[in-house]
């Protein structure tokens, strides 16, 4: 193992740790910042905000993303909102209450110092985004509006209809573009990180491949920041974009960075159910819908195939309201997901295969009117109708839990640096803030807190000791790592087997869903640990990867990601909780 597992949590009361830490951290003077180069991998809310802020501070930044534009980062898919302890509704919210809800919602598995800092910074994020022009929803009088999310008994979620992530990313993107125009940030779109370069025990660069030309390059820097998101696609079917992968963080793990809690994956209770084997991904219906939608199934198994309108009120089981009266339909995601699985396992699930529950808006429409519901969630209802052909204003939505977010990630200390010196990990790619279950509307909060406010204050603490220590990209360590990357690509192309990449990925995903998914036990995990190595061995003997290296080759991109999933899956099944 490289380095040590010292979380470097500052002494003193929780409420004073972050201020004291900033007061006593090392600094880099403005005239020295342009002497440092920082690599940021990922251009979503965490990576984009970090690159923009570091560039504005005067550092020279290289930002990489595998999408054709930073605007296509998966952060754009976040729908429901972003939490902050503003207490605009005067319903008793506070920084401490947001901290407590986050810790409790994560089953007390998150690092308290990091979470309290996150709650403190949450209010600054809203101010920052409003200043950028993010069009948050507002009350009739012009004040910012709030709604509730799971695991909270206050309304603290700021939102922009059902497209909050998109609007926040546009605000972040304009800040990034400003720095690109100023020359402090260089953008490398359609470029994938394939390995991390370690020099004298410190992260000093990356090896990349252009997805357009196949060209492999070495990039040296004084520090590397990973903001590459989560690995939910290891399950094949998830709400993640198809391109989401584990490659960057897993390559860092192979170079000595430690993974924490890789088995902590969030199953979101509000997704459109699987409709058949033809599917390659699932679609999220925002948790915000549970503000006004009521979740229910028939009380009797024999009613499951009846149209919902034919099931009278007394024969419906509003099971979340019955089991969790304090939170009702806004119970935390892990609890709501398990409850949905339980009623479906009892044979009361609805829809094809009995894998679905109803999310019913009839009461809300009767109370508030259809126009109000349309104003709040209109685009979500449109998405649902396009996919299912059903009008959710007239009949209940059908939903079922699906893989959505990953709380696990690379281990980081209070400065967001991994055990590998010089390797910083932010946003969903690290493990520190959400424990065993992330509360709704906290992902956007963490990504922007890390990028706008935390990393710019903690990165100088490391860089201050690195003046003049940046290696050349022609150094032996870069050449050796590049050789490893080329050898791996050549190996993938030379297998020339008979099975498709999708067949391997689908088989792995189904295995993980059954043995390491929403419910798991020792026997199932041991079975998975026996089958995964066999599947991986078959992959390297029988996968078929078409095309060549020196080309735009999506099959080769996907092959490398599936190969990493096949190794990473084993790590998920053997992991133990870490704080």
Walk me through the topology.
Layout: H1 14-24, H2 30-33, E1 37-41, H3 45-57, E2 60-64, E3 82-83, H4 95-105, H5 112-132, E4 157-158, H6 164-182, E5 185-188, E6 191-199, E7 202-210, E8 216-220, E9 223-226, H7 247-254, E10 259-260, E11 265-271, E12 294-298, E13 316-317, H8 319-323, H9 333-345, E14 357-360, H10 362-368, H11 370-388, E15 397-406, E16 409-410, E17 423-425, H12 443-463, H13 476-494, H14 501-516, H15 522-542, H16 554-574
Parallel strand pairs: 1-2, 1-9, 2-5, 9-17
Antiparallel strand pairs: 3-4, 6-7, 7-8, 10-16, 11-15, 12-13, 12-14, 14-15
Helix pairs in contact: 1-5, 3-6, 3-12, 4-5, 5-12, 10-11, 14-15, 14-16, 15-16
Q: Could you explain how this protein is built, in words?
A:
It is a single chain. Among the domains are: 14-225 and 434-463, FAD/NAD(P)-binding domain (3-Layer(bba) Sandwich), CATH 3.50.50; 269-404, Succinate dehydrogenase/fumarate reductase flavoprotein, catalytic domain (Flavocytochrome C3, Chain A, domain 1). It has 16 helices and 17 strands. It has helices spanning 14-24, 30-33, 45-57, 95-105, 112-132, 164-182, 247-254, 319-323, 333-345, 362-368, 370-388, 443-463, 476-494, 501-516, 522-542, 554-574; strands at 37-41, 60-64, 82-83, 157-158, 185-188, 191-199, 202-210, 216-220, 223-226, 259-260, 265-271, 294-298, 316-317, 357-360, 397-406, 409-410, 423-425. It is globular and about 75 Å long. The model has no long low-confidence stretch (mean pLDDT 95).
């Amino acid at each position: 193992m490289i380095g040590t597992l010292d979380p470097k949590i500052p002494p003193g009361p929780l409420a004073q740790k972050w201020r004291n830490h900033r007061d006593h951290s090392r600094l880099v003077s403005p005239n020295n910042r342009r002497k440092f180069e920082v690599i940021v991998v990922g251009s979503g809310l965490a990576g984009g905000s970090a690159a923009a802020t570091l560039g504005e501070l005067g550092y020279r930044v290289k930002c990489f993303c595998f999408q054709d534009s930073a605007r296509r980062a998966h952060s754009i898919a976040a729908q429901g909102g972003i939490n902050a302890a503003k207490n605009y509704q005067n319903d008793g919210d506070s920084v401490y209450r947001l901290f407590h809800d986050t810790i409790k919602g994560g089953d007390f598995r998150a690092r308290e110092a990091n979470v309290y800092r996150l709650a403190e910074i949450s209010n600054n994020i809203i101010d920052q985004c409003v200043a950028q022009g993010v069009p948050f929803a507002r009350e009739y009088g012009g004040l910012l509006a709030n709604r509730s999310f799971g695991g909270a008994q206050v309304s603290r979620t700021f939102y922009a209809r059902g497209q909050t992530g998109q609007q926040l990313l546009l605000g972040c993107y304009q800040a990034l573009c400003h720095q690109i125009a100023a020359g402090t940030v260089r953008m490398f779109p359609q470029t994938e990180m394939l390995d991390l370069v370690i020099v004298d025990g410190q992260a000093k660069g990356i090896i990349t491949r252009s997805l357009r030309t196949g060209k492999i390059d070495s990039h040296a820097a004084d520090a590397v920041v990973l903001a590459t998101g989560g690995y939910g696609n290891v399950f094949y079917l998830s709400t993640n974009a198809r391109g989401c992968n584990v490659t960057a963080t897993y390559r860092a793990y192979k170079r000595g960075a430690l993974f924490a809690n890789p088995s902590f994956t969030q199953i979101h209770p509000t997704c459109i159910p699987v409709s058949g084997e033809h599917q390659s991904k699932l679609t999220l219906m925002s948790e915000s819908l549970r503000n006004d939608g009521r979740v229910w199934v028939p009380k009797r198994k024999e009613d499951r195939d009846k149209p919902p309108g034919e099931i009278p009120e007394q024969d419906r089981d509003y099971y979340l309201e019955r089991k969790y009266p304090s939170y009702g339909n806004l119970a935390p995601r892990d609890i709501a997901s398990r409850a949905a699985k339980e009623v479906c396992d009892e044979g009361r699930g609805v829809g094809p295969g009995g894998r679905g529950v109803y999310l019913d808006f009839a009461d809300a429409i009767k109370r508030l009117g259809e126009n109000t519901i349309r104003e709040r969630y209109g685009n979500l209802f449109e998405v649902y109708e396009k996919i299912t052909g059903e009008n959710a204003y007239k009949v209940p939505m059908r939903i079922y839990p699906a893989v959505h977010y990953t709380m696990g990630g690379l281990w980081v200390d209070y400065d967001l640096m991994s055990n590998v010196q010089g390797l910083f990990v932010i946003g969903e790619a690290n493990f520190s803030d959400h424990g065993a279950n992330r509360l709704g509307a906290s992902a956007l909060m963490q990504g922007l807190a890390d990028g706008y406010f935390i990393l710019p204050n903690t990165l100088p603490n490391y860089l201050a000791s690195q003046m003049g220590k940046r290696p050349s990209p022609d150094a032996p360590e870069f050449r050796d790592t590049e050789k490893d990357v080329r050898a791996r690509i050549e190996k993938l192309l030379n297998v020339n087997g008979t099975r498709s990449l999708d067949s391997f990925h689908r088989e792995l995903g189904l295995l993980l869903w059954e043995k390491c998914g929403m419910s798991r036990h020792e026997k199932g995990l041991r079975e998975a640990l026996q089958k995964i190595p066999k599947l991986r061995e078959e992959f390297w003997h029988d996968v078929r990867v078409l095309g060549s290296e020196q080309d735009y080759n999506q099959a080769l991109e996907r092959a490398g990601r599936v190969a990493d999933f096949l190794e990473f899956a084993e790590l998920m099944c053997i992991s133990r909780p870490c704080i």
